[in-house]
Structures are given as structure tokens and as C-alpha cells.
Amino acid sequence: MIAGILFGFIPLAIWLYLIFGRDFFWLCRERDDRADFALGEFPSIVAVVPARNEADVIAKSIASLLAQDYPGAFRVILVDDQSDDGTGAIARALNDARLTVLTGAPRPPGWTGKLWAMKQGADQAGAPDYLWFTDADIAHSSDNLRNLMARARGTGAVLVSLMAKLHCRAAAEHFLIPAFVFFFDMLYPFRAVNDPARKIAAAAGGCMLARREALEAAGGIAAIQNEIIDDCALARAMKKEGPIWLGLTNRAQSLRPYEHISDIRQMVSRSAYAQLGYSPLLLAGTLLGLALVFFAAPAVAMFGWGISQGAAWMAWLLMAISFQPMLRFYRLSPLWGLALPIIAGFYAVFTLESAIQHGRGRGGMWKGRAQAKGQG
Q1: The model's pTM
Q2: Which of 33, 44, 185, 268 could lock 350 by a disulfide, CB 3.0 to 4.6 Å apart?
Q3: Domains in the chain, please, with CATH?
């Protein structure tokens, strides 16, 4: 009986904390459309795009960069990271004077592929005021760079990052994609990230505008050369140099579909164990925590009794309510909120698989490369 009461009330206490004590992360208030900053000057910017085997999306992605309405000095450097599918040739065919296609050098030991490509692009950029790091599978609205710069200048941020809106059309995407962003926001509440007085730092690698001088003061890309979760590592380094800002957006959209659960599994398992510092102890604690946060309440709600069952239903309801703003952002049915425990179960499996892959020497697998620390 005592165990039943505990497993009913502990999840309720956890969700009350998450709802009211975790910077109200679930409200999704940190958005790039909530404030309008005037831009009185136009610093120089170079966009750096690391790309490896992105032939299916590269033309649309680069075209969206070249279509930016930014009135200042702006150019684009695509770093073709040893692609074998014609990515570089497709980009060169765009034939724009503002575009440089750089053939990437072989990756040195100790570097992840993406960060090595980013460094080569940053070195090639020279000395612009800002560097805009964006992924090769992201399409940007024509006003995105102007708004990024306006926010950077208006807030004094040394790093402005947007969580690109992920592709969410297939059934597997409906099931798992909104939760991916929800869990990220839970782990790194955007409001806390954006508070200069707080140490917590995070960024979204698909769209990051960095002040070059601050980046160099932080040690440059070389300072994080072996990080799998490179965007958050960059955010931690940059926040030591000044304020940073992270928010949701509709201005940057992912072109990469995740039509099957296996596609999302690969995305998550690539970095989940790295997030845990490759620690078996933290892995066990995370799986136990997921059980308490997401699984205990539905189990007691369906099979418990008395006040513990009532507490469990309340915890499950709070869970579903907290998911609603993210579901609205992705324009999905609110009923997905009730499925959050099942969705979390899939992410628990993906996290465990990430640790198994690391043990097999395939940690941090990306485009055929094992890149986790000590591997590849």
C-alpha cells in the first residue's frame, strides 16, 4: 500500500515541479516572433554551411540563404565534407557570386566531421562581424537573417540560435517529433538559457548567429572540436563571453523528413549517450527517472486504487496539459498529450540503444562515421 501511494504521489510532485518550477518551459514563450527589434546598421555576415551527402536538399537550402533580404555585406560558404553524392556540384550549379563552395579536407583525429567542416568555413570567412552557422538541410524564410541580426543587436547577444521547425508530416513524425523539442526544452529551459544571470546554456545547431570576436575569445570552433552535441557545447563557451538567446521559430524549417521511426531513432541515438557523459551510472539514473516521471503515473492510474490512483490521474493530466503548447506549435491534435508516456518509452529505448552503440564502437554515428569520444 505504501508503495502504491508513493508511486501515485511522487509523479504528481514531479509534475507540479515541472509545471511551476522549471521556468515554465512548456509554455513555449521563447519565440522569435514575440519581439520586434529595429536594425539601424548592417554588420557584415558570412554564412557557413557544413554539408556531407546532402544532394537531395542542398539546392533548396542554399537558395534560401541566397534569397535573404539582408541589406548588409553577406556571403555564403558551403563546406563540402567529403561528399560522394554530388553535393558540391549541385551547389556550384547555383552559380552565385556570393557563394563559395569549399572542398573539405580530410578530418583530423580528435575532430567530429561537422565541427571540422565548420572550422574550415570559419577560417575561409576571413573577418566578418558575424558568422551564421546553419545546417545544409534547413530552409530559411527571406527575412530570417535580418531578424536574427536585429535580435542580436537589440539584446546584445553574442549568440542567437533558433530551434528550426522540424519536418512533421508523416505518422512517425507526429508521434515523436514534437516530443523531441519538448524534451529538449525541458532539459534546457529556453527562458533560463536566455537569462544572462543563469549558467545553463544551449543552442540549436541548425541556425546559430555568432559574433565573430566573441567566438574567437571563446577559443573558436577548436575549443569544442570533439563534441557530439556541438551546438550546446558552443553555447556554453559563448555564454561565458556574453548573453545568448534561443527560441522556437517558423522562419527556419527542416527539409529532412523522418518518415519512419527508425529515422528518428538514429537521430536520437547518435547523441543521447554523449548527453549522459558516456556514464553507465547516469544512464541507469536517467532510465529510472523516466520511469518515475512518465511511466509510474499511467500505471497507477489504471491499476491503482484510492487516493494514490487519484494523484496518478492528476499527474497524467498535468503531463498531457504541459504538452499542449508544443502540439499547437506543430498543429497536431491535443490527444497526443495523453500518449506522452508511450512516446517517452520510445525515447528511453533510443537512449539505451545509444549506449549499446557506443559499447560496440559505433557511438555518435553520422553519415557513416563513428564520432563519439574514443571512437572513429
Answers
A1: 0.93
A2: 268
A3: 2-25+263-359 (no CATH), 29-259 (3.90.550.10)
